[in-house]
UniProtKB/TrEMBL annotation:
Protein name: EamA domain-containing protein
Keyword Membrane in record: yes
Species in which this protein is naturally found: Aphanomyces astaci (Crayfish plague agent)
Bilayer-spanning residue ranges: 33-52, 102-124, 130-147, 154-178, 213-232, 244-266, 295-314
Keyword Transmembrane among UniProt keywords: yes
Keywords tagged on the record: Membrane, Transmembrane, Transmembrane helix
InterPro entries named among the record's database cross-references: EmrE-like
PANTHER family membership: PTHR13146, THH1_TOM1_TOM3 DOMAIN-CONTAINING PROTEIN
One of the record's GO cellular component terms: membrane
Range of residues in the leader sequence: none
Lineage: Eukaryota, Sar, Stramenopiles, Oomycota, Saprolegniomycetes
């Protein structure tokens, strides 16, 4: 996705070229909402896989009920206590989840859209390596939600892990900001100043610093939303027994409906070329279409990205059905 965002493609929108000190239509493909649309299409491939598998195997249901699944021979989900509850769940396995459950899946889909657009907007200004490593912040926010709202307790080794991740996220955030235009200031010099002079060295603030700081802020906010999304998804998998593969597929389908509905609104909102946060509420999809028609490498990157994510989702959620959601979310955002 970072490569796609970095491509300069001719379109209809104008941008400022620092090399020529003039405006041009040959601009970077900064389209986070189009990235969200790609993500939703890739997630929807899980539904296609389920339908094709059902047709090939001849099974009367899309996916086995979660409470019947085993991990190394042991069922890892809470088992229904009453026969009536078990009979209802088995019936849903054949008939599919109830319409009520399918409707409520719009809530994790909405959370997924919010965290994806925040993460992709941050990725516009932050190096891909820093972006990927900063995704570990979801561990901190997930632990807070688990303790505060789900009544869970943490062991000592889990607390130690959270502390280490917090320190690492702080280091990555500083590295993401200093990794831009500051060739004369190193993290060691900052440490030396703090330990000897008890003050930070003088660092000139540039527009690149502001962009990267805002990018890191967006990424961290995305991790907060992602942690909330994990909690909601856990409810659907445990309480409503929706399989991970079906859950991801329905999030993709609902996401497509929501994003397509937002396209006219995003295109008519006021644009602000000098504003970093404008990418959250405005995106010219006419310009996106023109750029796609005029750049075959961009099309190939987009299609390849969706196929990679779709294939990875199916592979992960079939091989590792219990923790596939977390693998998918953290590895390929």
């Amino acid at each position: 996705m970072k490569v796609q965002f970095s491509l300069n493609v001719s379109g209809t929108e104008l941008c400022y070229d620092t090399a020529t000190n003039a405006t041009t239509t040959d601009c970077p493909f900064h389209k986070p909402w189009f990235g969200v649309l790609q993500m939703k299409l890739a997630m929807s491939l899980c539904l296609i896989y389920l339908l094709v598998r059902q047709k090939v195997t001849g099974k009367p249901y899309l996916e086995s009920p979660v409470f019947k699944r085993k991990h190394f021979g042991t069922k890892y989900m809470p088992q229904p206590r009453s026969y009536e509850e078990r009979r209802t769940l088995l019936q849903e396995a054949y008939d599919g989840p109830s319409w009520r459950t399918m409707l409520f899946l719009v809530f994790p889909a909405l959370l997924d859209i919010v965290n994806t657009v925040l993460a992709f907007t941050g990725l516009l200004w932050v190096p891909a390596s820093v972006y990927q490593m900063s995704n570990g912040a979801v561990l901190l926010f997930s632990a807070f939600i688990a303790m505060r709202f789900m009544g869970r307790e943490l062991y000592c080794y889990q607390i130690l892990s959270i502390i280490l991740v917090t320190v690492a996220v702080i280091i990555f955030s500083v590295a993401g900001i200093l990794g831009g235009d500051h060739d004369t200031v190193s993290p060691y010099e900052i440490y030396a100043n703090l330990t000897t002079a008890y003050e930070l060295p003088t660092i000139p603030v540039t527009s690149s610093d502001v962009h990267q700081a805002m990018g890191m802020l967006f990424i961290l906010l995305a991790q907060v939303v992602l942690a909330a999304q994990f909690a909601v998804e856990e409810h659907f998998m445990i309480e409503r027994h929706v399989s991970p593969l079906l859950l991801v597929g329905m999030e993709g389908a609902w996401g497509l409906v929501l994003v397509v509905g937002l396209v006219p609104l995003l295109s008519t909102t006021p644009a602000a070329t000098d504003s970093i946060v404008a990418h959250l509420w405005h995106e010219d999809f006419t310009d996106t279409w023109v750029k796609l028609k005029g750049s075959s490498p961009l099309v190939m990157l987009g299609v390849g990205y969706m196929l990679c994510i779709g294939t990875y989702n199916v592979r992960t959620l079939v091989v590792y059905p219990r923790d596939g959601i977390e693998n998918y979310e953290c590895d390929f955002r």
